[in-house]
Design brief:
Distance between the termini: 43 Å
Number of domains: 1
Radius of gyration: 16 Å
Shape: globular
Number of helices: 5
Largest sheet: 7 strands, mixed
Strand content: 15-25%
Order of helices and strands: EEHEHEHEEHEH
CATH architecture: 3-Layer(aba) Sandwich
Structural class: alpha/beta
CATH class: Alpha Beta
CATH topology: Rossmann fold
Oligomer: single chain
CATH superfamily: Alpha/Beta hydrolase fold, catalytic domain
Strand order of the largest sheet: 1-3-2-4-5-6-7
Length: 222
């Protein structure tokens, strides 16, 4: 039995937010059973309640079902529902999509929505033929030890659309070995994209370093 409605776990203002961070969890290629508040959902909870600043709402979406399910694209439908809720509850507020794995693919699919200010895709599931994102801020980060989704596919997609790509050394799909790095990457991207406006974009990348204009890398290496 599946849930008839997706649901939201909300942190921050209930109305009149100046920005919304919509967090999208991972899932499976196929699966019509109800999506539980399991590991895929719990993994993204810290990104929803990260504390992006006064007046910024963090939303964690729970999909109706576990899977993408081919042409049905069930999680895309659920995320569109959440975007409509953001428009209803916080009219005019920019939305930043933060998605992991299947949620990263959903976020990239919805980047063209006029209320979306930017997309942060973490270890995204990317397939050949996925549409290009144009005219939006996009950050793609991928653990170099990931064996579930493909870091090379993320790097190639980022190059194709001109997005920022950050390889995360010493980490895999679950983002467990370097949590502070992932967290600072996302919070910095949100601040630059939807809250404070661009910062530090004139700094050149450091050769061989995991550098991005959105944060200073913490010393959380193993």
């Amino acid at each position: 039995m599946t849930s008839s409605q997706p649901s939201l776990t909300v942190f921050g203002p209930a109305s009149a937010a100046r920005a919304v961070v919509l967090v999208l969890h991972g899932g499976r290629v196929t699966g019509t059973g109800a999506a539980p508040r399991g590991l895929a959902w719990a993994r993204m909870l810290p990104f929803a309640r990260a504390g992006y600043g006064d007046g910024v709402a963090g939303w964690l979406l729970r999909n109706r079902v576990r899977g993408w399910n081919g042409a049905a694209e069930d999680p895309v439908r659920d995320a569109r529902w959440a975007l409509a809720e953001a428009r209803r509850r916080h009219p005019g507020a920019p939305v930043v999509l933060v998605g992991h794995s299947m949620g990263g693919r959903v976020a990239l699919r919805l980047a063209a929505d006029p209320d979306v200010a930017g997309v942060c895709a973490l270890a995204p599931w990317i397939e050949n033929g996925d549409p290009a994102v144009r005219g939006k801020a996009v950050l793609i980060a991928h653990g170099q030890r990931d064996r579930i989704t493909d870091p090379a596919a993320s790097a190639a997609y980022a190059a194709r659309i001109g997005a920022t790509y950050v390889p995360i050394a010493h980490d895999g799909h679950a983002m467990l070995r370097r949590p502070l790095l992932w967290q600072r990457l996302v919070t910095g991207f949100v601040a630059d994209t939807a809250v404070a406006g661009p910062r530090h974009t004139d700094r050149p990348p450091l050769p061989g370093a995991e550098w991005t204009p959105y944060f200073t890398e913490p010393s959380d290496r193993p």
